[in-house]
Amino acid sequence: MPGKILIVDSIATNRIVLKVRLSNAFYKVIQAADPNEADVILQNEAIDLVMVNAHLESADAIAFCRRLKTGPKTSHLPILVISSQHDREMRLAALKAGANDVLVRPIDDVFLFARLRSLLRSLETAEESELRQKTGQAMGFAETTTSFVAQSQIHVTTPESATSIRWATVLKTMMPYRITPTIHSDTLKHLSGSKVPDVFVIAVDRQKPDTALRLIAEIRARASTRHSGILVVVDDERRRILVDAMDLGAHDVMMNGFDPDEMSLRISTLASQKRLSDRLRDNVTIGLDAAVTDPLTGLFNRRYALPHVERLCSRAKLKKQQFAIMIADLDHFKQVNDQFGHATGDAVLTEAARRLREHLRPVDLVARIGGEEFLIAMPETTPERANRMALDMCSVMRERPVQVSSINKRISVTMSIGVTMGGCGHLTKPVNALIEQADSALYDAKLRGRDQVRFAKEHA
């Protein structure tokens, strides 16, 4: 299933029609007639997204959104408010209350499903943050807090300079962020030598909409910017452009042109999500004691990884999702140590860890569990996606030798990976058994010549 969606609507016909549309797209749908019924469902079901009618008969939909965002078990859930009319004040109130967007009927399926895909991608990061926090707490470690939060960097990019300057000037009076105006053609050039933006605000040119789409694709392709938030702005309801933008990686869209109140709310949400994503990628700032991190690579170690994977398994069972476990090993690594020394070997290991961490999603776990051996856990992953990611990781190691500056040499490195699947549709096995399966698959990859991916065979 792509996800489990809760519909909250007082009108049964609305619920049924929406359920049919979503079910046809393979979403699992649960219905509630009012917030009280929704509360019961949320206590007992693993919901991925909530859709609520803006005009509930016996309750305040905005207050319900606010309650969801302040509840410890529901604060991470994406919320879509569905309205029967364009109402700017209601839209702003919903966004302030924590809703991710307000969609106005009639909503075509292509746009609706693109919006759902975009929101469910952001849910992965929020859930992974919660999972890692609980793992640390269960092991007796608490997250450290910092009194300093860097000022968020926002780039406003439009087709012409006058528009971007005007937007940035207005937003600066409303937000405590550093806001930089640019034009489309200068956006990427402007990044060299400057701090990477936390959020890009990209206006679509009516005459040349493909320019904005190419910019989104380029931002997503670059290692330095692929985790930045993207808000796309159009001044009319060109749904096809917005669908393409979301599928290319835009996190949020505005369909009514420049509205500083609405834009500031959406930017603030994206900036908060970016800070969360940064915290996930930076294993050191997760705040666990050094006892659960590998001092050489900065990755988690076996002590942290195993209980984390246990929790991942439990969550996958609850949500009826698949996940992948991989064991990756650098090929002929002993020869590197023997020929160049252990200091060079350490440099190679550190670079391998950096490449793995950069290539994987923020929600994926990578840990060093042995000398040159890494454990990778990928939640909500199909076998096809796991295979593609593993092959890509082998390519990342193979195609670019490691430059070791201390000896002024480039050292070629390859990696073998064993993969096993767990969760929905696979035999129930404890974590240790899954890791043993992945390790056996790794051994098979080594026997077959190394620098390849092998899947474990499931036994009846």
UniProtKB/TrEMBL annotation:
Domain GGDEF: 321-458
Residue stretches spanning the membrane: none
GO biological process: cell adhesion involved in single-species biofilm formation; negative regulation of bacterial-type flagellum-dependent cell motility; phosphorelay signal transduction system
EC number: 2.7.7.65
Alphabetized GO MF terms: diguanylate cyclase activity
Domain Response regulatory residue range list: 4-120
Pfam families: GGDEF, Response_reg
Catalysed reaction, written as an equation: 2 GTP = 3',3'-c-di-GMP + 2 diphosphate
GO CC terms of this entry: plasma membrane
Domain of life: Bacteria
Descriptive protein name: diguanylate cyclase
Lineage, broadest ranks: Bacteria, Pseudomonadati, Pseudomonadota, Alphaproteobacteria, Rhodobacterales
